[in-house]
Write a structure and sequence with these properties.
The chain is of the alpha/beta class. It has one domain: Phosphoglycerate mutase-like (Rossmann fold, 3-Layer(aba) Sandwich). Helix content is 30%, strand content 19%. The protein has five helices and six strands, in the order βαβαβααβαββ. The longest helix has 17 residues. The chain is globular.
Length: 196
Amino acid sequence: MAQPVAADVILIRHAPSDFTGRLAGRLDVPSLLPRGEALAHAQSRLAALAPPAPRVISSPARRCLESAAALCPAAGVTEDARLREQDFGEWEGRPYTALPDLGLLTREDLAAFSPPGGESFLDLFARAGEALAEIAAAGPAIVFAHAGTIRAALGLALGHAPLGLAFEIAPLSATLLRALPGGQWSAGFVNLSLTA
């Protein structure tokens, strides 16, 4: 009997958005994509990491779709709403300086916290985990998403959702997760810059 094959999922955080100093969350803001040589360099770095003719899946957010189109111009892009950023409810669009100070929270408490009218990181973890399991079951893929979504994916690899909150995820960075048989995940690399 053949052993199930592991599937690599490369997660790319979208390009920076034109929303400096404010919490974008689910707001549909445009991206600030690199141009010229910088874009060609990012395309080349991603092509070196990705399988030939990769499947490309994206959050439906404009900044993710624009990033996918720029970095994988020959690929068709499939949208999956479960890959959206965490819903920060009433906090979305606010300057970071206007957000309430939550004090010192453990990662577990922070993961369970929901902003007014929003969702918790644990909610994001549940929906993104379901999406990533389905994506990986169909084979290798490139996923364009958000920092929160990628942190949720890292929580999967570490086997505990709140641990994903320990990572910083830079714009236009790549994170490799490998879906292993039995529903296990491993992390190959995290936060690898495509523009450096």
